[in-house]
Design brief:
The protein is an alpha/beta fold and 138 residues long. It has a domain of 77 residues: Trna Endonuclease, Chain: A, domain 1 (3-Layer(aba) Sandwich). The protein contains 4 helices and 8 strands, in the order H-E-E-E-E-E-H-E-H-H-E-E. The strands form 2 sheets. It has a 6-stranded mixed beta sheet with strand order 1-4-5-6-7-8, sandwiched between helices. A two-stranded antiparallel ribbon has the order 2-3.
Length: 138
């Protein structure tokens, strides 16, 4: 099993604070004989007649030297997980968790456009300081 991301517990706690139930920590999948692990799997009951929302969250700290290199790694991992998840549990929506300060200060507008619009990666922005979800970008 892979090491936990620096912000793992903060994201986990923020999701619980936001009303999500953590069902998988980590959320595991198989790709042939390989084991894959998305950081968290969570569910939130909306209403009995509507069923429940299911998400998987891949957490990235972006604490390295190059935001571009780390974004390349994160995008590659995200796309791979998204494709496997579509076959494994298609009703679960994958989000990339990014800390608010990193997303606001380190991601340029061009990088945000690439991630959010052109690649259509769903992003969960969280505050490590306040321990809460700031916004969901879908």
């Amino acid at each position: 099993m892979p090491a936990r991301d620096f912000y793992h517990d903060k994201v986990r706690n923020a999701l619980v604070k936001d009303g999500w139930t953590i069902m998988h920590d980590p959320f595991s999948m198989k790709l042939g004989s390989a084991d894959l692990y998305i950081d968290l799997g969570a569910e939130k009951i909306i209403a009995a007649e509507k069923g429940n929302d299911k998400i998987a969250v891949e957490i990235k700290s972006f604490l390295g030297k190059s935001i571009i290199a780390e974004t390349q790694d994160a995008i590659g991992q995200f796309i791979m997980y998204q494709e496997v998840l579509a076959d494994y549990e298609s009703e679960r929506i994958l989000y990339l968790a990014i800390e608010e300060e990193v997303f606001t200060n380190d991601f340029s507008d061009a990088l945000k456009n690439l991630v959010l619009e052109r690649l259509a990666i769903k992003v969960l922005v969280f505050s490590a300081l306040r321990g809460e979800i700031v916004k969901w970008l879908t």
